[in-house]
Design a protein that fits this description.
The complex is a heterodimer of chains A (330) and B (458). Chain A has 330 residues and is mostly helical. Helix content of chain A is 73%, strand content 0%. The relative contact order of chain B is 0.16. The chains are: A mainly alpha (330), B alpha/beta (458).
């Protein structure tokens, strides 16, 4: 499809949208009674309900349905796909990795963001410091992964040992460059299990810490000045202030940040795909879901993995929404 | 009295009527050779248009083509269609996508298929044929393929005895890259047998240079380089027939012959004395990208790198790829004389999802020697070959393309398509890649072959 065709389609879509809205308005305009308001409300909600139904509910139900069938979707196999997830050695490793990601990324990213927010609060260079840690947020996960792939790039410092014409190996990776300069053996960060998963986790922490910092910093600034003043008059130390005033005051924001990062961690796929391609024992649930569904064409197992992610995410989402409401109510 | 509106309506009715005629014409002609749109082709009488004249005047018709070939390589493709457009009056609408394989299946399910797709995997052609999407190739295409391509090539476009997809481009994977200057300076000779090659490896290793370098990292496709290695050695050690049985799973994936072949590969790539020149030890192969795997040759840190003809694009600006230049390739030697000269390679197949006259005319054009030579001339930078025997090697612009074409046209050569592209995707785009990656990371031959065998879909 050419760009002009796409533009024309866009214009048509906008005109259609305005047209539908105008028709609804015209039709419901005359109904001014109490019942009329209900009709009006229904008329406006119906299109979005329809879209949610088609775009979200139907695929979700279909995915759950597929997860109980065989890979060609010709017959029901009960919980066989789920059984595979929890018994196959490969799949168990995936569950272990996912657990590591979900435990480490939200806690460390939030901790880093919180400490940073407190440290730079009201400092002279606050804006600049905040911009620094916020910048990675502006980079896509694939972009971030490619940057870190270069950081971790590996060449054995002794690869040319014994050659007459070789000599020093040129390091491309920053980390191995530093190790080499310090006279330490170079290290294959993305290869050596199980530590490579931790090095991948660092990437997401690097991206998410800025998000945590921004929300928490705003929250810290919202703590009423008089509480802090009263505490200072009582003679509390900086650490006590942090422990007894700051953290309790921003608790709802902390939870929102933790849960939001947990949700994006459960969905992490880009980092694994672009750094190791899932090799060397670094697969996670969302990546395996993609591989099974679209590459090895085993949509049933893919659907089961998607359903599992959904089941894991749902409680966090519900909790997140409740906390969000509480935060807004204050 | 004519106003614009009625005229448009008449035109619409006429178009519908013509479309109806076209459809009924197709229905009538389906079993009697090429259909025609009637009229005289704009290019009638010109020698290069001879094959296309019978399709008649196709002015105003459009053929949509969907491929995995994107910029900058697509420019040469588009340029090569000019003769077709001049001869028939039809236009070709070209669309390339890097997500081609996945998107094609999505478009098939959505009923939004292009007229023609260039599919690089015979396995995918077969599954689309079995799903009922693909139209049989017209007689004119079949005749062209008989004339210009080998039987091995035609077989890859044939499903259950019916011929569907004609070969388009090709690449040769059985190459070892080396530096002619480095070889000359050290008095090394290009080996012509496997034993010579191993003896040369020992000589080079004794001089202090690691003879081999490799890289298999390729994102989620990591490991494909090793599947090519194993396939190449299979062809040399057990021959094309056993190779076909192995690819089609008529012998188990973990057959002792396969294990022996993989151990032969291991004799090169798992020997710390031989690898990994300029990069590290054996396991560094796993994390080195395939694009960078051969580059140590340029610095004299490595002597040999087995990789396909398309690696020519990786050497970078200013590196002369020629027998008298900085780098060149030799044919990966055979282990014995029993199986002639096996060639492992890949290529695309022209698959049609429509049988309108203009589509069949375009298929005919692509399978002809006219197109192959037009394409060669339209690719001044090189990097393209075809197994089309009508292709004049002098029209190719780079030495490595000329070498590839001469190997493909060699009557002694037995061509075999990349096996992983023919296996079910759970294996060919799944466990075969990942388990070979585990193999170079330290797993044993038997362990990885057993794992691949158990993952083969029932």
């Amino acid at each position: 499809m050419s760009t002009t065709e796409k533009l024309i389609q866009m214009v048509i879509a906008i005109v259609l949208f305005l047209g539908v809205m105008a028709v609804i308005l015209l039709l419901t305009q005359r109904l001014r009674s109490r019942a009329g308001e209900r009709v009006q409300a229904a008329a406006f909600i119906a299109p979005s309900l329809l879209l949610i139904g088609v775009g979200l509910l139907y695929p979700a139900v279909k995915t759950v349905y597929l997860s109980f069938r065989n890979s060609a979707s010709t017959e029901f196999v009960g919980f066989e796909n789920y059984q595979k997830i929890f018994t196959n050695a490969d799949q168990l490793q995936i569950l272990r990795n996912t657990a590591l990601w979900v435990l480490l990324v939200p806690t460390i990213a939030t901790a880093v963001g919180l400490i940073y927010a407190v440290l730079v609060d009201r400092a002279r260079f606050e804006r600049f410091a905040k911009a620094l840690i916020f910048l990675p947020m502006a980079i896509s996960l694939v972009g971030a992964s490619i940057i870190w792939k270069f950081v971790y790039a590996y060449k054995d410092a002794n690869a040319n040992a014994g050659t007459t014409n070789g000599g020093k190996v040129e390091q491309i990776g920053v980390l191995n460059g530093i190790l080499d300069a310090l006279g330490i053996d170079t290290y294959n960060f993305l290869f050596n299990q199980p530590w490579n998963t931790l090095f991948l986790i660092v990437i997401l922490i690097w991206v998410q810490a800025g998000f945590a910092m921004t929300i928490l910093s705003a929250s810290i600034k919202a703590i009423p000045e008089d509480i802090i003043e009263a505490a200072r008059l009582d003679g509390v130390s900086g650490l006590q202030l942090f422990r007894h005033i700051t953290v309790p005051s921003i608790r709802p924001s902390l939870i929102v940040v933790l849960t939001t990062i947990s949700i994006s961690t459960l969905k992490v796929f880009d980092i694994v795909r672009s750094t190791t391609g899932g090799n060397f024992g670094t697969k996670v649930l969302a990546f395996e879901f993609y591989v099974q569904s679209f590459r090895t064409l085993n949509p049933a197992l893919g659907a089961a993995l998607a359903t599992l992610i959904f089941v894991l995410v749902s409680p966090i989402v519900l909790y997140n929404i409740r906390q969000m409401r509480r935060l807004e109510a204050r | 009295m004519t106003t614009p509106l009625p005229r448009r309506i008449t035109a619409g009715i006429a178009a519908l009527a013509i479309a109806g005629l076209g459809l009924s014409a197709c229905g009538d002609d389906s079993d009697s050779g090429s259909p025609s749109a009637g009229g005289t082709a704009p290019g009638a009488g010109k020698p290069e248009c001879a094959q296309l004249e019978s399709f008649g005047d196709l002015t105003g018709k459009t053929v949509s083509v969907y491929t995995s070939i994107v910029a900058p390589e697509d420019a040469a493709h588009k340029a090569s269609y000019k003769v077709f457009e001049d001869c028939t009056g039809a236009t070709v609408s070209y669309e390339g996508s890097q997500e081609f394989e996945a998107q094609l299946q999505v478009r098939a399910q959505a009923g939004n298929l292009p007229d023609i797709a260039y599919i690089p995997q015979p396995g995918l052609v077969k599954s689309l044929v079995e799903a009922g999407y693909v139209k049989e190739a017209p007689q004119s295409v079949s005749d062209n393929v008989d004339e210009f391509f080998g039987e091995d090539w035609k077989a890859y476009g044939t499903v259950d005895g019916k011929f569907y997809a004609a070969p388009l481009g090709a690449n040769v994977k059985s190459f070892v890259w080396y530096s002619p200057k480095m070889f000359a300076d050290n008095g090394w000779e290009v080996p012509t047998t496997w034993d010579d090659m191993m003896a040369l490896s020992d000589t080079i290793a004794a001089s202090g240079v690691k003879p081999w370098c490799a890289g298999i990292e390729s994102g989620e496709a990591t490991g494909w380089v090793l599947t090519d290695w194993l396939e190449d050695v299979m062809l040399r050690e057990v021959g094309p027939d056993v190779y076909d049985q192995w690819v089609n799973h008529e012998i188990p994936f973990n057959d002792p012959q396969v294990a022996a072949a993989l151990d032969t590969v291991g004799g090169v790539l798992k020997d710390e004395n031989y690898v990994n020149g300029g990069i590290g030890g054996v396991t560094s192969i796993a994390t080195t990208s395939f694009q960078e795997g051969g580059l140590p040759i340029l610095k004299g840190e490595c002597a040999m790198h087995r990789q396909a003809s398309f690696y020519a694009a990786q050497w970078g600006e200013g590196v002369k790829v020629a027998e008298d230049g900085d780098v060149f390739a030799f044919y990966l030697p055979t282990e014995n004389e029993d199986f002639g000269k096996p060639v492992l390679g890949g290529g695309e197949f022209v698959t049609a999802f429509s049988d309108r006259p203009e589509v069949q005319a375009f298929q005919t054009y692509l399978s002809s020697d006219v197109w192959a030579n037009e394409k060669a001339k339209a690719t001044p930078g090189g990097g393209w070959v075809s197994a089309n025997k009508g292709l004049d090697i002098a029209n190719l612009n780079s030495p490595i393309d000329q070498l590839s074409a001469s190997i493909l046209q060699d009557p002694d050569a037995t061509f075999r398509f990349d096996g992983s592209d023919q296996m079910p995707s759970a294996v060919g785009a799944g466990t075969f890649w990942s388990e070979m990656t585990n193999w170079i990371s330290g797993d044993s031959t038997s362990k990885v072959l057993d794992a691949i065998e158990s993952s083969w879909p029932a």
